[in-house]
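Take a look at this chain, tokens included, and explain the fold to me:
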Amino acid sequence: MRIRPFLLFLVFAQLGLFIGEAQAQSCQDDDDGDGYSICGADGDLSTLSDNDCNDDPAQGGASIYPGAVESCDSIDSDCDGSFVDEFDDSDSDSDPDCTDPDDDNDGSIDSSDCAPLDDSIYPGADEICDGIDSDCDGRSDGQDYDIGGQPGSQLAPETANHLPFGVVIPDATFNGPASVTLDSLAVQGLVGPIHDLDVTVQILHSFREDLTLELTSPQGTTITLATGLSSGQNLTDTVLDDEASIPVDTNTPPAGMTGSFTPIETLSAFDGEQGIGSWTLTITDAVSQFTSPATLFRWSLHFTLIEPDDNDGDGWIGDCLPYGDCDDEDANTSPEAIDCPGDGVDNDCDSQLDEGGDEDSDGYLDTSCPSGDDCNDNSSSVHPGIDFDNDGFNVCEDCNDLLASVNPGAAIVCGDGIDQDCSGFDEPLDFDQDGYIDILCQGGDDCDDNVASVNPGVDLDSDGSNACEDCNDGSSLQYPGNSEGWDSEGSCEDFLDNDCDGYVDQDGVDLDSDGANACEDCDDLDASFGPDSDEICDDGVDQDCDGVDLLSDLDSDGVSSLACGGDDCDDEDADNYPGNIEICDGIDQDCSTVPDDAPDLDGDGLGPCDGDCDDSDPEVFQGAPELCDEIDNNCDEVVDEGFVRDSDQDGFEDIACGGPDCDDTQAAIAPEATEDCADGVDNNCDDLLDSADPLCAQGCSCTASGSDEYPSSLWLLVLLPVVLQRRRRKSPC
């Protein structure tokens, strides 16, 4: 074996002392009485092999001599110059394993190294899928999230937030001890070990230099976040982060210490731990400043976790076979699952199908299997078919199946230290010490024995119902027996359970089962009354709960409404009923179902609502030709448009407009004009041309004019066409 140089140095130094002392004593002296002298049997001090290397009885020399039995105690008991001798020295460092704090020399002391003789296994080693716990975290490779995991950011779903009042941090006692304030934060929902952690705090404090902040993990690891802070006020959104560049105890921090700072001790101490559980922030105020207390307003934790390769979240990772999950998409499949029969799936990843479900072979399937009811499938003496105490509750139901007086249905005896009803605890008589016995106990009437302010003697709202009867003892509007429903004004629209029946605004209360609750139903005891009930006309009763009885002729037009069996299409308007005259106003006055459907009385193809402005004259309608008759024949609201009654201004109207002027374009042609017997024109409009005109028959060669020879007959002939024409004219409307 190789002997360390420093050990040889110690040996020779010791020998040098002995040699020096030997000059003053005999080489054969045996001061410690172990039978060996410092010079050995040969009397030669320079011969080391038989010399007593420790002859001082005060230094344990009696057990140290050549040939002594060597113990693994870092003492050279046999004086051969070696501490190792027959003891193992795994790392060949001349320090035997039994005294070497790190036998495999892997950097982890043996007490924390799960394999102290294997330098490839130690806390923090890289975990690989080989069935060996290389990183000493106690997890099998199939459940070790360090295999295949990648860092990912997750924010703790729970954050301590004490606004607006916060948590009081008392000032230290003058000339006395420091004040210590603890606040806890329960973290849930995180999956995977911690890769990085940051802490944010907000504290109101006039002398922050008095403070020390410590953080403790659910696993019990504690580090100092901040101490020795510079003088100043408050910690405002102060972030403690290992990756920050400014130390938290800097002499020149920003105002309020707002920003990111490295903590006094690194947060990496929590790396590898699970974030789930209760974290504790401890705040110590070491100096009394005679000021008002400080306040912790809030603090939060931000985690970066190793996100596991566990897609189905069953605790077993994929991609590590045969140790991990054989189906990482099914949470019901993993090496620890029970392979229930009948599903055709290898649930426990042992390459066999449906071979499990009754691991203890007692004939009962595990509760994890469909229809399984064996509460302990690892013990054949525990299953639903066993009732040791014969109390009617089997061993899977009974919390103590050896005592018949204890079972889920047993009567409770309070305060006797026995959990008779298997609730998990013994009910005390008066837990809240308010003088009232728990209602669960015999003769008790305290409905909440955990709160002293709730008992039958308390009526906070003075409504006559005590706190155990009242569904809301803080509101006098709510108490048993209060009125709530159709007949109680306002009770159906206040969003309160006024009568403490468990129904807000009677939603869910339907005593007559007609589909309408007590706030909608005007008589909730009679199913013939309700919002959807049929109303009976003129009986003086409101069946449909609309507040009035249904009248058959509400508008008094003599015709009953459709709802009451009549044919009045609008019983709220007396002008609308069958047989009424239709008015062109977009309303169905005659209840024909077609508004503005008045008939065509003059037979011209259009009714009064279709464009006929005079349905008594077949020559008057929309689109008819306009006549010069002082009538609006085409119903465009313009009379005789396009006509001039006397365009030649000769004093006689155009024959088209009923006048006698046969040519209203020439003033020389008119009834009183002189007939020119040779111009081929009927100048006097008597319908007789030139020689045919009697006036020309008198023998006048050029012109003819009226004479006294035929006065009466001539004028009759002239006026006859005029009279006939005027008879055709109609009087305007």
The radius of gyration is 59 Å. Residues 1-25, 700-718, 720-733 have pLDDT under 50 and may be disordered. Helices lie at 5-22, 711-728.
